[in-house]
């Protein structure tokens, strides 16, 4: 069984699939008695975040001990009766990143909102509110990633004044929306900065700015954060290692 760090640095077992004392006679648990991990620690966003980070550690070390246990027929049957995700995640549609794998999660663990470039569209804002306020996740994570194609295109759109896209393409609508979040990075970057480094800087700034915009534009989520029900993070996913790094706001 994997372990997660608790307050004070001590190590304790990860949240169990079966609550202590639950189940039928003899200790056998029924499907309905197996709580989601979020039901165990959902009232403590700090512990919920540590649970996710423990999952990322397992993923990058190739020692996922909990993911397979979360895909049983009993778990799937229980999920037909509702969801209780441990985190709401806004991330990119890029096929090289899978939040559930990156955090060693299974069905029902994450409420994931995805589009090219993890852009804060109206639909994304509404989905984030649903994940936090209605599905009840105690964590909101905005997750950018290394070598993001959408950010690369947006940087080129701003710096080179071109996209290389065919006429009538719908993609510029995304690039235009990203301009406000990455323009400050481009404006403040040294003139001789390497393009790859500039893109990486823009990915990180885009995640930070997107999180700030969620709190600015969504009063419901902002209130949940102010009341301590939801904790917010922005992060950076490294494609080569799978490591999720927390970014300072």
TrEMBL record:
Its EC number is 4.2.1.1. GO terms for biological process: carbon utilization. Its cofactor is Zn(2+). It comes from the Eukaryota. GO terms for molecular function: carbonate dehydratase activity; zinc ion binding. Keywords: Lyase, Metal-binding, Zinc. It catalyses: hydrogencarbonate + H(+) = CO2 + H2O. Residues 19-33 have a biased composition (Low complexity). Residues 1-42 are annotated as: Disordered. Zn(2+) binds at residues 92, 94, 145, 148. Binds 1 zinc ion per subunit. Reversible hydration of carbon dioxide. Belongs to the beta-class carbonic anhydrase family. This is Carbonic anhydrase. It comes from Cafeteria roenbergensis (Marine flagellate).
